[in-house]
Write a structure and sequence with these properties.
Helix content: over 70%
Distance between the termini: 58 Å
Radius of gyration: 17 Å
Largest sheet: none
Structural class: mainly alpha
Number of helices: 3
Order of helices and strands: HHH
Shape: elongated
Number of strands: 0
Length: 79
Amino acid sequence: MSGTIETLAAKLAEDTLDAMDQTGNERLYMEIGSQLAASSQSLEEAFLTEVRVRLAERGARQVLARRLAELKGKAKDSE
């Protein structure tokens, strides 16, 4: 059963993040989570974890990209 929950939560998280990107609604995942809470606390928790992990990864990648751009800019300036 936990495999099913994890699979469903991961797919729903991906779809929700795609919808958030398309609509600009950064809180859509909270609405989806509330809907899940009404019927399955287990799926809600798994879904919110999947979303948070993906959002954290996105944020970390943005920081990494900025840092690398800064380093490339400094290297170019010193040439």
